[in-house]
Design a protein that fits this description.
globular; 6 strands; 6-stranded parallel sheet; 184 residues; 36% helix; Rossmann fold; alpha/beta
Amino acid sequence: MTLRIGILGGTFDPVHNAHLAVASAALRALNLGQVLWLPTGTPPYRPAPVATAEHRVAMLRLAVAGEPRYAIDERELRPEASGFTFDSIAELKSENPGRALVLIIGADQYEKRSSWHRWPELEKLCEVAVFARPGSTTKAKIIPMTPTSVSASDIRARIARGEDVSGMVPAEVLNYIRNKGLYS
């Protein structure tokens, strides 16, 4: 049996419990041998992340520590990276011949897929699995899990207002955020 690799991309600004729940559900539901966390750099199609790449990767390392099936791939953080998922998946495909790649995305992104760079070609390189978001009615290969309304932007806003987010992010990540004074 070939090792199936799930790819979970995002700014992870910060990584939170819903990200971890998605990765865990995907491991089980999609029979994955690994989930590759793919933090984005500063893509041309969205606002830049608030925290630096260094901080976002450090928080990811804390969040995924202890799960040997999780790995972090920093290719999209390189200065020459295009920021397009297609380019990263094409590279991963060439580096992992014979292995099935499964792109894990939210229903909100899946519904906007026609605007993605080279989407029709991307679907030929990998499977696509979708996790539900609140209010989503997407008809796609759904990762079974309860939709959650936790979002990184909400977490950043709460931290800026001095509100407690301890139930929304792993304890180690929250300690890092506090120690580094992020998002306040």
